[in-house]
Amino acid sequence: MKDAEENMLTIGVIGAGYWGKNIIRAFNNLKSVKLKYIVDSDQDVLNKFKNLYDVEKLKDYKKILQDEDVDAVAVVTSAHTHFDIAKDCLLAGKHVFVEKPMTLKVEHAQELVNLAEEKNLKLMVGHLLLYHPCINTLKEFIDKEEIGKPFYIYCDRLNLGKIRKDENALLSLAPHDISVAIYLFGENPLSVSAYGQCYLQKDIEDVVFLNMLFPGNKIAHIHVSWLDPHKVRRTTVVGSKKMIVFDDMEPREKVKVYDKGFDMTKNYDSYDEFLQIRDGDIHIPAVKMSEPLKLECEHFLKSIEEDFIPRSDGYNGLAVTQVLDAGIKSIKNSGIPVKIGEK
Ligand SMILES: NC(=O)c1ccc[n+]([C@@H]2O[C@H](COP(=O)([O-])OP(=O)(O)OC[C@H]3O[C@@H](n4cnc5c(N)ncnc54)[C@H](O)[C@@H]3O)[C@@H](O)[C@H]2O)c1
Q1: Which residue has the higher pLDDT, 303 or 265?
Q2: Is the Cβ–Cβ distance between 69 and 1 less than 8 Å?
Q3: pLDDT at 4 over 70
Q4: C-beta of 126 in contact with ligand 1 (< 6 A)
Q5: 156 and 115, same structural domain?
Q6: Is 146 in the same domain as 271?
Q7: What residue numbers bound the domain in which 147 lies?
Q8: If pLDDT is split at 50, 70 and 90, which confidence band does 26 have?
Q9: Count of domains observed in the chain
């Protein structure tokens, strides 16, 4: 199915709104792929692309499904449409990149995973932070046990806006941090509890505090809000030896490793002597920066060309969908813990 002339992959992007325009730019800038279609069901949105990109612009994505030239599709539409569009694309034999959250229902996520496996196609979810060089620096520090045993993680994703009408702050903002916690701990959580409140719109939570319990009593806490005076994008990991912080609002020096913690002394006379505070140096590791979106799009294409499982594959999308589902159930039940997979 390769492009005959250039022997490169061919892609179509479905959904050209706020985020879609960035995905279109990112794929268009990559030399290893040919962008053939831009699709949006809204003519006003399509009109904005009239003089941009020398590619076909469509209102209906069905034409892409029949085009043998197209190897892959990026689904960048609103979350509630992801399942139907991604399913159609997989059934038509296309590799699929789908934005977060992969689907709104757990059974839909499972169906996409099964379908991709049956058809031997790549299914990758837009968990952008897994391609952020700083998050990968955190991952290296954790995997090399430089911070000791990881105890807990907390993430803040706060701002004033962008308010969504069709999904709450949990669905809109938390998939990034949920995927990060799963990635950094290297395993899926056991249970979720969450509180959220709807202040601005009926039945749409503006602020959510979500906790995940992982095996070995590790916890991750996520605070998301579009109703907050601060713009915060921060991930903190506390380990038995060191603590590490990624602050994406810092223009430079985004990652800091704190040699802070408590040392246990063997010979002690009092409780104060048993636990000794260690307030050591702060180390700023050099991180080779590159645009996470470019890295994410490259990763998707490479996973097709070199046939490997993408970092944010369908199972990762399913795991995040399970946490979101459990989180929504917990919010509706005043924050009670909900086991992953519990009906
Ligand atoms: N990875 C990130 O950092 C990030 C950031 C923002 C948004 N997103 C995700 O991207 C997706 C889109 O968000 P957005 O902010 O661009 O929303 P948006 O509403 O601005 O754009 C969605 C576009 O999809 C189009 N669309 C809807 N149904 C369609 C269909 N059946 N066929 C063709 N076009 C259709 C709409 O007309 C609209 O233009 C969401 O899943 C969102 O969560 C990801």
Answers
A1: 303
A2: yes
A3: no
A4: yes
A5: no
A6: yes
A7: 132-292+323-339
A8: very high
A9: 2
Q: Are 28 and 53 in contact (CB under 8 A)?
A: yes
> Each residue of 328-340: pLDDT tens digit?
999 999 999 999 9
49 lines ligand 1 (CB under 6 A): no
pLDDT digits (tens, 9 = 90+) for 33-69: 999 999 999 999 999 999 999 999 999 999 999 999 9
* Cα–ligand 1 centroid distance for 127 (angstroms): 14
Q: Is residue 128 in contact with ligand 1, taking CB distance under 6 Å?
A: yes
Q: How far, rounded to the nearest angstrom, does the alpha carbon of residue 60 sit from its chain's CA centroid? A: 27
Residue 309 in any domain: the answer is no
pLDDT in tens, 115-156: 999 999 999 999 999 999 999 999 999 999 999 999 999 999
CA angle 112, 171, 252 (to 5 degrees): 105
| Co-location of 82 and 154 in the same domain | no
218 and 188 assigned to the same domain: yes
* Chain segment 136-147, per-residue pLDDT in tens: 999 999 999 999
Distance 84 CA to ligand 1 centre (A): 14
CATH number for the domain spanning 95: value is 3.40.50.720
Which has the closest alpha carbon to 309: 317, 144, 179, 79?
A: 317
Residues 193, 127 contacting (CB under 8 angstroms): no
- The verdict on the CB of residue 23 being under 6 Å from ligand 1 is no
Q: Is 104 left (phi over 0), alpha (psi -120 to 50) or beta?
A: alpha
**pLDDT average, residue stretch 79-107:** 98
Based on the domain organization, do 113 and 164 belong to the same domain?
no
Residues 213, 103 share a domain: no
| Of the candidate ranges 2-6, 154-158, 255-259, 266-270, the one whose mean pLDDT is the lowest | 2-6
Q: What CATH code is carried by the domain that includes residue 239?
A: 3.30.360.10
Q: Rounded mean pLDDT of 246-260?
A: 97
The single-letter code of the amino acid at 290 is: S
Q: Say yes or no: 53 and 136 in one domain.
A: no
| Last residue of one domain, picked from the residues 83, 99, 129 | 129
Q: Go through 278-291 and write b for each residue having 16 or more CB atoms within 10 A of its CB, e for each that does not.
A: eeeeeeebebeeee
Say which residue the tokens 């999308």 belong to: 317
151 shares a domain with 96 = no
How close is the Cα of 51 to the center of ligand 1, in Å? 21
